[in-house]
Amino acid sequence: MTVVVSLTAFGNDFLGGLYVATSDDANHSFVALQTGDAVVHQSDLLHGVDVISGDRYSWVLWLKDSKGCSSSPADWQRQAADDGDPVASFLQAHRAHMQPGISAAAAAVKKFKWLRAAAKAGFSRAQNELGVAYMNGDGVAANLQTAKMWLRRASKFEPDANFNLALLLLHTSSSPNKLAEAVALFAEAAEAGSRSAMFNLGVAYFKGRGVDVDFDLAEHWFTKEGSAEASYSIAQMYVACRTCRGSPARSPAFWRISGMPWVAMPSVGADRLGVSRRYPLPPLPPFRNSTGMSRQRQHGRPTRRWHRCGWNARPMGGRRVLACRFSKPTPG
User: How crowded is residue 151: how many other Cβ atoms within 10 Å of its Cβ?
Assistant: First the structure.
């Protein structure tokens, strides 16, 4: 069995490349592999390589059957994991649920076992996930102090570990000092490349959670995070918030980037965006908007206002006008 992984792109980097045929005299049919594409074939396939122009690079692997080869992913790298290899142990943790007939609860316990083995061997990704397991009680009794210990160990190399430490602080304390400390951890994680931390840091600057309100920095971190949800948040910042800096005329472009309808936007107040859903649920401190309406409740749906905005069809003074209509708050 042969596996060919293309490292260059047909049509851009080269023309021709790998071809197949039904007979020696038949016309060749080129396989238009793009970068990262793979083709798997047996040795009896009529094939060849003919590079017409450009440069073509591939990674080729040859596989053969073995008595020790298992079709179950749960068995892959098992021997290496049993021998103490931390990466193999980490992979075993993420394949625990693939064992045939295993229950969800048993898979969680087995995942925890392999994560702990990899974490104790010094693998930082496993240390981060082990901390989350202790924080959420996945496969083990919840223990926030132990969670903090493992997350701090992982934070030397894993940006998301500081993000998770921030979430842990928000779960355990509602004091302003702890909130500021959590946002500082979001900032450290965001600077190191954690996209989830980038998003929450954008929310913090937009809402003034643990830092002073700064719409420029909020837009910076939302933009750097780069998701559709972040683009949606930027659009809300310039349309839903009537007191924000920036022109509302920028928003339709952000709606188009996000792929979300920009003419109907949920809001928790007349002119403020609620806290991001990426912040954890209670016991999170009840972040509130300028009207004093809570974004989240212990049970039920949050109180919210809906408003609809659109461009006035009649230009006024040579410019179109953005008109918004706000409804009354719905019952909580």
Answer: 28
- Residue 191 to residues 130, 220, 234, 308, Cα–Cα distance (Å): 23, 12, 20, 36
For residues 142-150, average pLDDT: 95
Specify whether 182 is located in the same domain as 103: no
Contact 146, 134 (CB under 8 A): yes
The identity of residue 56, as a single letter, is R
Query: Is the pTM here over 0.85, yes or no?
Result: no
Q: Report the CATH number at residue 8.
A: 2.60.40
Write the CA distances from 177 to 66, 109, 209, 242, 321, integer angstroms: 60, 36, 11, 30, 43
Residue 84 has pLDDT above 80, yes or no: yes
Asked whether residue 271 is assigned to any structural domain, the reply reads yes
Same domain, 90 and 112: yes
**DSSP label at residue 96:** G
- Do 73 and 87 touch, CB atoms closer than 8 A? no
Write down the pLDDT at residue 233: 83
Within this chain, do residues 220 and 276 fall inside the same structural domain, yes or no? Answer: yes
Q: What range defines the domain where residue 127 resides?
A: 72-143
Which of the two residues, 192 and 300, has the higher pLDDT score?
Answer: 192
Task: State which H helix or E strand residue 47 sits in.
Answer: strand 47-54
